[in-house]
Specification:
Helices cover 64% and strands 0% of the residues. By secondary structure, it is an all-alpha fold. Helix 7 crosses helix 8. The longest helix has 14 residues. The two termini are 39 Å apart.
């Protein structure tokens, strides 16, 4: 949405809000009305997006998302790059981030790296990756590409 506004030079906040409300569809619009106690009125675009984000994030089940992530296996005929892309998509819901105060470090790449090493169907990829002390995901993907 923000990229659309930038690409089309839509800077007027009222127009941005109207576009957003017209794009979200009937079901999401009705949900948004309920979240705003049927008073969307003059709420800003930021407030409306925040209401939806809060609603959907609250329903996020991190453990279920991680179960799904850890269950992803490389499919027959699938290349490592596509498998990693699938894992990266699933990892978005897993909250693989540092929880210490002031730390926002992401651990997505290290989890994906571990999944590739542990579950690749190619023993040569696994053994080559395990020979390295602490390979990055990029290094493991380079090994897989050989």
């Amino acid at each position: 949405m923000e990229l659309h506004f930038i690409a089309n030079k839509v800077t007027d906040v009222k127009v941005q809000r109207a576009c957003f409300l017209s794009w979200i569809g009937t079901e999401t619009f009705e949900l948004l009305q309920k979240l705003c106690d049927n008073d969307i009125g003059e709420k800003s675009l930021e407030d409306l997006v925040s209401k939806l984000n809060d609603h959907f994030v609250a329903k996020q089940h991190v453990l279920a998302a991680r179960f799904k992530f850890y269950s992803i296996r490389m499919k027959s005929g699938q290349i490592h790059e596509k498998w990693v892309a699938e894992q990266r998509g699933a990892a978005k819901e897993c909250a693989f981030i540092c929880t210490k105060q002031g730390c926002n470090e992401s651990f997505v790449d290290s989890h994906i790296r571990d999944m590739v090493i542990m579950h690749t169907p190619y023993d040569k990829v696994r053994s080559s990756a395990l020979k390295k002390q602490n390979p990055t995901l990029d290094e493991v993907m380079q090994i897989a590409a050989l």
